[in-house]
C-alpha cells in the first residue's frame, strides 16, 4: 500500500478545529493502519501562525519546500476574509498538482480565489455561501450539504463537518471498517452522509416573534405525524390561512410547508439513526403516511432511500 501524504496549509487567522479535526481522523487511520498517511503542515514561510482562537501553531515546513502531496487540505477561519496574494498564487500553481484537493469551512474561499473551483459544485459554511456565490459566479454553491465531492475536489461546510469529510476520505482510501473504528474512537458515532443538511429545521428557520406562531413552531416539532396543513396550523394560531402563511414566512424565513417538510425529514432521520423501528412505523409517526412517500422525500433531499440511509448508521455486522 502506497503511503498518502496529507499537507495542511496554515495561515494566520485559521480556525484551529478545521485543522485538528481532520488531522485527528487521518492520524487515527495511520495508527490503525501504519504506513497509510504521512501528515505534514506548512505555512508560506515556515513561520508559526496564530489561529483565530489565539493558539499558536508551528508548521513542519515552508510551502515553498514541499513536494506535491496526495491530499492538499485548506482549512478556513477568519483569516480567509482577507485575500493573501502570495498564498493565492501558491495554491493556483500547486493545487492542481495534488491528487485530491480538500477545503474545510471557508477554506473554499481560498480555493475560489485561486480559480480552483470554477465550474464545480461546492459548499462552505452556511454564513458564507451567498458571498462565495456572489464573488465567484463560475462556481455552483450549494448551502445545504455538509460536504460535496466534485471529481477530485472536496469541499465541506462549517467546522466539525471537516471531520465527516475526513472520515469519508479515509473510508475511500482504507475501507469502511477503518473509518468506523476511527469514528467510534473519536466518539462521533458513525459519519454523517455528505448530503445531510447543515441545519436542523429549528436552526435553519428563525424563531417567530409572535407567541402564536412560536407555539405553532413548537407544535410542528413535537407532533410531526399530526395534520400539519396550512389550514390546520392557521386554526391553531387563530389566524386565517392566508394571513398565517404570510406571517409565518415573514417571521421564520420559510413557508410553513417547507418548515413542516424539514421537521418531518429530521424526525424520520433521527428514528432511522437511533432506533430499530420499522420503515412503515417511522413513515407513519413522521407524518409521511406511507413508506413510499417517505422514500421520495429522502431521495429528493438526501439522495438516498431510507433503508440505505439507515445502513450508514447500522451497518450489517461482518461475519
From TrEMBL:
Pfam families: DJ-1_PfpI (PF01965), HTH_18 (PF12833). CDD domains: GATase1_AraC_1 (cd03137). One of its GO terms (molecular function) is sequence-specific DNA binding. InterPro entries: Class_I_gatase-like, DJ-1/PfpI, Homeodomain-like_sf, HTH_AraC, INH-QAR. Keywords: Transcription, Transcription regulation. SUPFAM superfamilies: Class I glutamine amidotransferase-like (SSF52317), Homeodomain-like (SSF46689). SMART domains: HTH_ARAC. This is AraC-family transcriptional regulator. It comes from Streptomyces lincolnensis.
